[in-house]
């Protein structure tokens, strides 16, 4: 009766179990599980974090504590606003220790919690504490353990998405450099590469001015001709929707995506068509005349042959209707593509001018 919020006096109830309308007392508000849990969060989080920050706490208890905090934020996002200092100090003590075979799982759990914490809380709450954590997070990017490096990239992606737009910050340039190192290395783990590509896209969206000041070498690593392309296509699509990188970048990405379409049996062609649609809408016709690698009829030929071999779904078939193109063959004698080029260049060169 107490948790249901019903009155204790039976005289206040009608024959159907409802409160009489002529009662002068206000109706009691029913306590839901969410409201009951929310009322217990301050005391629960305070007691838990006090136990976790002790130097005598063993790693299994720390891991269980971070897992409990992760579950709490999953149910009640943004409910740890009053415990930021304790969270940062506890996370710092965990991340400052070199991960071993027995503590690597603890590092991964801590990083997963931090990614969720930054994505569910306002930047005004944690922005002042970032100088304490970012050096340790940058160090975690270089760890050999692939899960630790992947989770570290996810933490930075959560920070970038929460704080955008970012005009200037001390940790953006080191993050860009560390991400580029991972992307340019040939022995980078597949999961780490995917997280690094996604983080680089977030850098371009959240800190566009800082990313534009670089030489765009990261796109040569992202738009590669070997390996998996799923995350790279998603990143190109995401960046093209949010940022104007430049016409040369658009042309290079179109050539790269057309090369992916040539590969028979390649999955994920719908995502490629979606990315092409976004890039084609970003294209400026008057700037296309000096960039020729394929012809418009050749591009349409390729799409027709692909549609014959691998019929397009209704969701993607509309992407290559003539009306979506900002130009037409009878108006422009030269196009982005040239019919003599049957495959995209093996190495894409990206201009430093936007």
Task: Kindly list the characteristics that best describe this protein.
mainly alpha; single chain; about 350 residues; elongated; disordered C terminus; about 0% strand
Major β-sheet, in short? none
Rounded mean pLDDT is 78
Helical stretch tally: 16
Order of helices and strands: HHHHHHHHHHHHHHHH
By DSSP, the count of extended strands is 0
Query: How does the overall form come out from the CA principal axes?
Result: elongated
Determine the structural class based on helices, strands and strand pairing.
mainly alpha
Give the DSSP E fraction (strand runs of 2 or more residues).
Answer: under 5%
Could you tell me the radius of gyration in angstroms? Answer: 27 Å
Low-confidence stretches: 1-21, 286-300, 302-312, 315-354
Q: Could you tell me how far the N terminus lies from the C terminus, measured between alpha carbons in angstroms?
A: 67 Å
Residues in helix, %: 55-70%
Helices and strands in order:
Layout: H1 33-52, H2 59-75, H3 84-95, H4 104-120, H5 123-126, H6 130-141, H7 146-163, H8 172-184, H9 190-206, H10 208-212, H11 218-222, H12 230-242, H13 247-262, H14 269-282, H15 296-309, H16 314-317
Describe the structure.
The chain has 354 residues and is mainly α. Among the domains are: 122 residues; 105 residues, no CATH class. Helices cover 57% and strands 0% of the residues. It has 16 helices and no strands. Helix 3 packs parallel to helix 6. It starts with 32 loop residues before the first helix and ends in a 37-residue tail after the last helix.
Quick recap:
With 354 residues, this protein is mainly alpha-helical.
